[in-house]
Amino acid sequence: MTTDNGLKYTVWHKIKTEILDDCRKEGEWKILLLDQFTTKLLTSCCKMTDLLQEGITVVEDIYKERQPVADLKAIYFISPIEKSVDHVVKDFESKSSCKYKAAYIYFSDACPDSLFNKLKACQPKTIKRCKEINISFYPKESQVFLLNVPNAFHMLYSPDKSVDKEAAMQSIAQQIVTLCATLDENPGVRYKREPLDNAEDLASLVEEKLVQYYKTDEKNQCKEKSQSQLLILDRGFDPLSTVLHELTFQAMVYDVLPIEDDVYKYKPDGSASKEKEGRLDESDEVWVKIRHRHIAVVLEEIPKLVKEISSSKKESEGKVRFMLRVCAELYLH
């Protein structure tokens, strides 16, 4: 589990209280169904052991073929997209083919009425809950988040008029608002004007969606602004970063080692042994301590760190081999 501070913990706490606690029944185990986005989201902020403690016995991909488990209820934590909703309907479309005893459905973001209406095709009384929890971003680190708009740069800056820039803007704004909601903030929105209108346009959309989200009654009264400030900048604010090579330890590690999804591989006892995996995340105190330091400083500290890790004995083997490999690769470069 993540440490009890920072964005990852905040996201996990929200998932725990608004999903797992919401449908909890003492002594009852459930199956958790995820799609591509929510799998990545959940993986970023908790481990399987955390889910086991919350009564989740199995985690499955909603898009894959699954065996029916008629005596267990299922929690569906999914994106509000047609593909995911269609798979829910498929699981409960007939009484004889229901995969689970019942379904608790939680959408990561606002779900259009057209998709809600699709759920009416499910067998009566099988859907026990259907809610939106508003988390449509990835908590990458305790103070870093990513949005789920992979082609945003092209869509915002492409001269091609056929590119749907407005759709990208709407998606980015909505995801930023879910971040604010997760942090329980209604920030003042500031932006850098010119040379393009992207920052201003996005700021206007975010402010509009914040007002809509925080409406409290029919008089359109909105939650008061908090002291926090949301600053929106475009790439033109810091163009040099695109042509300079980042020299922090974290950046260099990802440059020189074949790390995928924050996972590195190593062999404990030489080339003949079975390969193992280690994860670079905030559960590793050494990684948190050195990741944002300049590589020259870290290289000087590595011998001392290796000695400290070796003496601690706690999961030291993989960490030591990782540090030594990093050291060797960086000296080669």
Characterize the structure shown.
With 333 residues, the chain is α/β, with parallel strands linked by helices. The chain has 3 domains: 6-134, Rossmann fold (3-Layer(aba) Sandwich); 149-238, Rossmann fold, CATH 3.40.50.1910; 249-332, Alpha-Beta Complex (Syntaxin Binding Protein 1, Chain A, domain 2), CATH 3.90.830.10. It has helices at residues 6-20, 36-45, 48-53, 82-91, 113-118, 152-157, 165-182, 198-213, 249-256, 285-290, 295-312, 316-332; strands spanning 30-34, 56-61, 73-78, 103-107, 127-132, 137-141, 144-147, 188-191, 229-232, 263-266, 276-279. The strands form 4 sheets. It has a 5-stranded parallel β-sheet. Helix 7 crosses helix 8 and helix 11 (295-312) packs antiparallel against helix 12. The longest helix has 18 residues, at 165-182.
CATH architecture of the largest domain: 3-Layer(aba) Sandwich
Number of helices: 12
Q: Span from first to last CA?
A: 35 Å
**CATH level 1 class label of the largest domain:** Alpha Beta
Q: In order across it, which strands form the biggest sheet?
A: 2-1-3-4-5
Q: How would you characterize the largest beta sheet?
A: 5 strands, parallel
Broad shape:
globular
Structural class, please?
alpha/beta
H-E order: HEHHEEHEHEEEHHEHEHEEHHH
User: How many domains would you count in the coordinates?
Assistant: 3
The poorly predicted ranges are: none
Q: CATH H-level name of the largest domain... which superfamily?
A: Sec1/Munc18 (SM) protein, domain 1
Task: Give the tally of β-strands.
Answer: 11
Radius of gyration: 23 Å
Write the CATH fold name of the largest domain: Rossmann fold
Instruction: Indicate the proportion of strand residues.
Output: 15-25%
The helicity comes to 40-55%
pLDDT averaged residue by residue: 86
